[in-house]
Amino acid sequence: MGKRLTQIATRTGDDGTTGLGDNTRVSKASARPMAMGDVDELNSHIGLLLCEDMPVDVRELLVDIQHQLFNLGGELSIPGFELLKDDALAQLDEALERHNAALPRLQEFILPAGTRAAAQAHICRTVARRAERAVVALGEHEAVRDAPRRYLNRLSDLMFVLSRVLNRHRPDGSVGDDVYWKSERLKRAAE
């Protein structure tokens, strides 16, 4: 494969448009570039999460998710094209089931807090939800396959579960916990 990007500053976007993968130009404020941007931001946040200490299997999963998000973004950039395959969603489902089975049952809502890695996983979760909403908005105006929306939905669920996994992971071998919301209901139940 040859070099694909030979010039980064093309100045072609100075007029407020961006080029899609099919060589059409659209407004940077239109739904397709908005969805693409949210997916790109999500991928960048996952890259930041990967700077943290975590179990090897979680790291490998997140690296693969980054590649799948590139596929998803590529699919969004070329109307009518398919890059995200069904096995990508199956991988998320399997990871969700495996990691969730190892966690204790939730007692209450949890705060997006704890370790830095867990807090970053929560940021990834919220950006995944925003990217999902952007894909839904795009789908209201243009044809978009179900796979990108389903992948982002499942990925946000997985990031929630991984935040719980990461709150329990400690380099010294000790085990942490979730940071629970101090609700009035729990307070009354404890009295």
Structure description:
The protein is mainly alpha-helical. It is 58% helix and 3% strand. It is built from six helices and two strands; from the N terminus they run ββαααααα. It has helices spanning 31-49, 56-77, 86-101, 116-139, 146-168, 184-190, and strands at residues 17-19, 25-27. Strands 1-2 form a two-stranded antiparallel ribbon. β1 (17-19) and β2 form a beta hairpin. α1 runs antiparallel to α2 (56-77). The chain is elongated, with a radius of gyration of 19 Å. The N and C termini lie far apart (66 Å).
Question: Reading side by side through the largest sheet, how are the strands ordered?
Answer: 1-2
Output mean pLDDT: 89
Q: Give the DSSP E fraction (strand runs of 2 or more residues).
A: under 5%
**Number of helical runs?**
6
Poorly predicted tracts of residues: none
Whole-angstrom Rg: 19 Å
Distance between the termini: 66 Å
Helix content: 55-70%
Largest sheet: 2 strands, antiparallel
Number of E-type strands = 2
Taken from the alpha-carbon principal axes, the silhouette is: elongated
Which series of helices and strands comes N to C? EEHHHHHH
Q: Helices and strands: which structural class?
A: mainly alpha
GO molecular function: ATP binding; corrinoid adenosyltransferase activity
Organism: Ottowia testudinis
Catalytic activity: 2 cob(II)alamin + AH2 + 2 ATP = 2 adenosylcob(III)alamin + 2 triphosphate + A + 2 H(+)
Pfam families: Cob_adeno_trans (PF01923)
